[in-house]
Amino acid sequence: MKIPVHAKPISPRLLGGLPYSVAVILLGVITLAACSDDHRLPPVKETSLTDTHKQIALLCMLSNVNYDLIAASQEELRQNTLKINDLLQNNADVRAYIGTDWQVVWGPEISNSRKKSSTSAVDSFVTDNTMYVARGTDLATGKTIHVVAIAGTNAVSRKGAILEDFNVLEEKDWGAPASGKISAGSAVGFNILSSMRDGATGKTLLEFLATLGDAGPTEVAFTGHSLGGALSPLMALKCIEWTEQMGYTNITISVYPIAGPTPGNKEFAIYAAQKFGKGYHSVINEYDIVPHSWQKDMFEKIPSLYKNAPPFNPGGNQGFGLPLKDQLAFNGLKAIIDQKTYQRIAPEREFVFQGRANVYADGSGSFFKEAKYQHVLAYYKDAFEFPQSIMDVLSN
Q: Could you give the CA distance from residue 65 to residue 82 in angstroms, rounded to a whole number?
């Protein structure tokens, strides 16, 4: 699986009229700050991440197995997802890190789209969304846990970028009383995931989880990075509402979003935080632009995140500023976001860390290169502290 560090451009048209220059600002990292104190996110509430969180984080990153893959057929994309279970069952480094009894028990399921070719009569296919469920042992408790892992945006997926990431101008009702609204893009992704059916059993995710209703006390943990960090709380919230409706008191739902943008408005954030309680375990990097989207007081800080040197651009005279043409486009989008009430879920429960600045020995550093680094590798190195063997697995 290739680490999503080098994003690719999309068409100059974005849903809702967002200009291409605005997309450039965010797409490179969503597909996937030593600045002054007044630019900082809420303070860290915990001093370290648990072994359970690190287990779940690795399972999360494995969901991006089809990242950057352009295939001749949808079957080729499906076959490639089988690498996840193979790693869980057979890779010595993965098994040493998270345990030897992990296996995929639902999926992996994918939603694909056709990638039109301008140079060939034959089109190809890319994966827009991926979700799977793995079962194993929680290292902290010794108990069985099910992890629902949701992929982030695929850099080669035009649909994922247009219909999900940047589709924030409109909002959709969540549905429950006094539950607020989510972005139209979040609603698209949520509906795609909710309609997925396991190829072997034909069951949706909720139909599969219903089989745990008589299995004794069990935890189901939802996780995802980037776009998956926005969609995993939605899937977890729907699962909580479902267990309440069905009376499944033995199933505990938790959610571990990583580097996710804000999926809904203030009313939704309050509703979701109340439902999640202590089961919400978000991780965000203070220097990652994606979690700064779309809450307006955080969004406005994006252009200045990498302005100071040091720590950014070590050895240089200045940090990385947003180029003027992109600043102008950003200002246009900011005017729209300022009219919204997007708000992060339970910020008081988020683990916030400071990603160390990347070093560009060849002098090639820029705002966008630093943003991509802070969105992916900084989490691997500075938050979850993956050993090199695990980072090698993710980059192979």
A: 9
Cβ atoms of 279 and 257 closer than 8 Å: no
Contact of 308 with 37, CB cutoff 8 Å: no
> Is the Cβ–Cβ distance between 218 and 196 less than 8 Å?
no
Q: Give the global pTM.
A: 0.89
Residue 120 binned pLDDT confidence (cut-offs 50, 70, 90):
low
Number of helices and strands in the chain (H, E)? 15, 9
Average pLDDT value over all residues in the chain: 89
**CB proximity list for 25: less than 8 A, separation 6 or greater:** 289, 302, 322, 326, 329, 330, 333
Q: ω before 294 within 30° of 0 (cis)?
A: yes
Identity (one letter) of the amino acid at 321?
G
Task: Say if CB 91 and CB 393 are below 8 A apart.
Answer: yes
CA dihedral 230, 232, 234, 236 (to 10 degrees): -160
Domain boundaries, the chain: 15-395
Q: What is the CATH number of domain 15-395?
A: 3.40.50.1820
| Angular region, 109: left φ>0, alpha ψ -120 to 50, beta rest | beta
- Report the sign of the C-alpha dihedral through residues 380, 383, 386, 388, in that order: positive
Give the percent of the chain with pLDDT over 70: 87
Tokens 């680094």 map to which residue?
373
Q: Are 131 and 104 in contact (CB under 8 A)?
A: no
DSSP 130-191: EEEEEEEE-TTT-SEEEEEEE----TT-HHIIIIIIS--SSEEE-SSTT--EEEHHHHHHHH
